[in-house]
Write the structure tokens for this entry.
Amino acid sequence: MQPASERFLEKKVALVTGASRGIGRAIAVQLARRGATLALVATTSEGLEPAAKECQDLGAKVLRFGVDVTQAAAVADLVSQVTKELGGLDILVNNAGITRDQLLLRMSEDDFDRVIAVNLKGAFLFLKAAARPLMKSSGRIVNIASVVGLTGNAGQANYAASKAGLIGLTKSTAKELASRGVCVNAVAPGFIATDMTGQLDEKARTELLAATPLGRAGSPEDVALAVDFLVGPAGAWITGQVLVVDGGLSL
Ligand code: NAD
């Protein structure tokens, strides 16, 4: 348990998508440590059970939602349920994301559309549904992008486009919501050890590690602490930025 002074999210409500595992789960747990009440979203509610339990063990009240982030009506219902049951919304973290890697010439239209739908449209739907409650609370929004959205990556045209789009969405909404005191930023992780990168073959992992000057893969907690910074007192006058957390990969 952290000292009370470090529980700067007491009485704040945070919604985190893709919270069942990996980076999203680490973000949820870090926000729970800060005292936040949590609404956790993933593809299934059952899948969220271990993450929810970890947050509850830290004293957090938690609501779980098994919702596909690409479904507009379900997203709108979810956000309205959160604001009703938890009394408002202070923090939105758009973290749900997928990869469907393939070289351009072999990439199917479906692989392109699905990655854009989950990574980019999903974030848009949550931003749209949550904008009013977040304007009321002068809240914070963090979108989890990727360094690949800044640099591009062979075999990830769909994913890189979705993350570059998410960065544009971040900057535009930062400009739109600034007058209401809402800060909107993106975090762009590099190579992080999660199920997502577990799919990579040994050669790709060795190459990514060799290209990371700090010489190790990042942990989900490395990313969660960047989110912690942006949603805490340190982030009060930061908006429209992309915080790269990549061990130097994009240098
Ligand atoms: P992960 O595969 O371990 O977890 C993904 C999460 O998103 C899960 O909770 C899953 O249920 C959820 N999700 C996926 N599709 C969904 C949908 N349609 N509706 C609702 N929830 C859905 O991934 P991760 O590695 O923890 O990545 C989290 C985020 O960080 C993603 O946006 C990813 O693009 C980004 N990122 C990851 C890395 C990395 O190296 N792992 C690097 C840069 C950026």
